[in-house]
Amino acid sequence: MSTSEPATVLVVFDLVGVFVFAISGALVAIRKGLDVFGVVVLAGATGLGGGVLRDVLIGASPPAALTDWRYLVAPVVAGLLAFRYHPALGRMERSVTVLDAFGLGLFCVTGALKALDYDLGLLAAALMGMVTGIGGGMLRDVLASRVPAVFRGELYGTPALAGAVVVVAGAQTDLPTLVVALVGGGLCTVWRLLAIWRHWQAPIPTGPASV
Question: What is the extent of the structural domain holding 91?
Answer without folding.
Answer: 6-198
